[in-house]
């Protein structure tokens, strides 16, 4: 039986990993207080207590705006703690999966990013996540880094749920048109991560997202349309497309961060869904929960 440590187990990806775990897997998913990634010096003792034989690190400092002023904390969680996990995995010769982000790129391309493309993060969050990738690969040759973008699910804090909440409260919305990405439904990513651990393709860097590219404005329109059709919101609300400059921010975000998942599909036979059907799956779950309340 595999004993799998899932960091960030209470988050949306960690929760999906637990829900979709293979039958022969014992899950270890301590909460952030019990397994505090901001205290890397405490982790080795905990790891020796848990004694996992595979690790998936989906815990991270993810507040992109606050990372600009809390860079030391973000680096501690997103890189220093990752090194501790990777060193332990190397010492015990166990698989290690590090979940990363599209924010390691600068968004200047206009075709999907391949894992081999040059990185150039524009902000502190992306810089700390890239540092975590490098730390993991340096410390443990049996590491799979999986970059994902725009992760969302029917629970947690994410763009899709925020749009639904705002559509229920407001008469209109404004969403940016000049940020284009590839949304990633968390259960689909969780299935891909379990497939990696089962197949164990060549180690290295991979990308995963649902297929297709869409601006945040177009994604918001789809969210509202699907939520209205499912009865999650009472009516569609008009959405105005605006430029990112409409929302002043201390953070520069990549304008284009579509990820090419073809390599992972090729080497591990990972299935990739189109983004719209994946969104519909998520909306159906929200509708069931809404109707039961």
Main CATH class: Alpha Beta
The structure class reads: alpha/beta
| Run of helices and strands | EHEHEHEHEEHEEEHEEHEHH
Radius of gyration: 19 Å
Lay out the secondary structure.
Blueprint: E1 2-7, H1 12-19, E2 25-28, H2 43-50, E3 54-57, H3 71-91, E4 96-101, H4 124-139, E5 143-148, E6 151-152, H5 159-169, E7 173-176, E8 180-181, E9 184-185, H6 186-199, E10 204-208, E11 214-215, H7 216-229, E12 239-242, H8 262-268, H9 275-292
Parallel strand pairs: 1-2, 1-3, 3-4, 4-5, 5-10, 6-9, 7-12
Antiparallel strand pairs: 8-11
What does this structure look like?
- The chain has 293 residues and is of the alpha/beta class.
- It has one domain: NAD(P)-binding Rossmann-like Domain (Rossmann fold, 3-Layer(aba) Sandwich), CATH 3.40.50.720.
- It is built from nine helices and twelve strands.
- Helix 1 crosses helix 6, helix 5 crosses helix 7 and helix 7 crosses helix 9.
- The chain is globular, with a radius of gyration of 19 Å.
Short key terms for the protein model shown above:
293 residues; alpha/beta; Rossmann fold; six-stranded parallel sheet; two-stranded parallel ribbon
Please summarize what this structure is.
The protein has helices at 12-19, 43-50, 71-91, 124-139, 159-169, 186-199, 216-229, 262-268, 275-292, and strands at residues 2-7, 25-28, 54-57, 96-101, 143-148, 151-152, 173-176, 180-181, 184-185, 204-208, 214-215, 239-242. By secondary structure, it is α/β, with parallel strands linked by helices.
